Amino acid sequence: MTQATRAGIDVGYWVSHCEGFRVRSGNRRLGFVQEVLEGGQTLAVRGGFLGRRVTLVPIDRVLAIVPRERRLWVSSSPTIRVPRAVTPLLTDDLSPPAHLERKRRERIAA
Fold first, then answer.
1. Residue 102 is assigned to a structural domain of this protein
2. Fewer CB within 10 Å: C terminus or N terminus of the chain?
3. Domain total in the chain
């Protein structure tokens, strides 16, 4: 993250407020930051076909962040994939898994 520090931006602030930023690893597009977890220590990155895959990326894997472009780059080191059973817990109300979970809860409550 030395490039971002040299640019004069507050890296700690932007990493903890990077929800919605596009995430890349070299030339590969990984997805976007769905949520900042564990007090700003981990990023939940949603990607894959139809945005069904959630990957947890530790903050120390962030190489650079460009707030103006809403992008960040991470190292290509292995990250943690979240099992699909947990994925709806990390989603907003617009995603298909969250929508299905909300419908299931409504049926149970009725």
1. no
2. C
3. 1
pLDDT, tens digit, for every residue of 4-36? Answer: 445 678 888 888 889 999 999 888 888 999 988
Alpha helices (runs of H) in 18-75, residue ranges in sequence order: none
As given in the structure block, the two tokens for residue 104 are 């299931």
Residue 108 and residue 72: Cα distance in Å, rounded?
A: 40
The span from the CA of 36 to the CA of 98, in Å, is: 18
At 6, which CATH number? Answer: 2.30.30.240
Rounded to whole angstroms, the Cα distance separating 82 from 54 reads 6
Residue 107 lies in a domain: no
pLDDT in tens, 23-70: 998 888 889 999 888 888 889 998 887 878 888 889 888 988 999 999
